[in-house]
Inverse folding.
């Protein structure tokens, strides 16, 4: 009988230790890299920021136009965030322009600013070249993100739908 009680006591002690260890440890997953960090000190350890290269493509169409301002709605994909949607507020200055955009994906929302120039080729295709950076205001994995990228794109003749590509680095 005493041996049975010792076995029960030992089993209860092991179960209590597992419960305490589970309650005092936690983990977090970095969704952009899939890395899980675990801390046994009652809190989540900080994941070191990491810089990675990425690329993205999108198709955009205007949803509002007034004088030198255009609002574009875009849908596309990112090599690290998957499917994205974006709203870009563009201001044109002749054949150049600037914009601020909010890009939405499953990991949060990223705020960017861009500057670009455009040129029309002999066949009527408008080519776009520029650059962009992340700005404050992101959410999720984009909250403290810094990024920079180059932007290229084109608009075929007799169309308002543009295709664009960005290639750059992001640090999260």
């Amino acid at each position: 009988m005493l041996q049975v009680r010792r076995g029960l006591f030992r089993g209860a002690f092991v179960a209590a230790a597992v419960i305490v260890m589970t309650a005092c440890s936690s983990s977090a997953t970095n969704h952009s890299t899939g890395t899980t960090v675990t801390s046994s000190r009652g809190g989540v350890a900080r994941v070191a920021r990491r810089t990675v290269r990425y690329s993205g493509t999108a198709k955009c169409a205007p949803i509002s136009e007034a004088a030198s301002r255009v609002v574009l709605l875009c849908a596309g994909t990112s090599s690290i965030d998957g499917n994205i949607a974006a709203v870009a507020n563009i201001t044109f200055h002749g054949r150049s322009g600037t914009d601020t955009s909010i890009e939405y994906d499953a990991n949060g929302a990223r705020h960017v600013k861009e500057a670009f120039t455009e040129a029309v080729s002999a066949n009527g295709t408008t080519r776009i070249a520029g650059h962009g950076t992340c700005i404050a205001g992101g959410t999720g994995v984009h909250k403290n993100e810094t990024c920079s990228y180059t932007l290229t794109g084109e608009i075929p003749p007799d169309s308002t739908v543009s295709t664009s590509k960005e290639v750059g680095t992001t640090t999260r």
User: Anything to note?
Assistant: The longest strand covers residues 51-66. The chain has two domains: 2-39, 51-171.
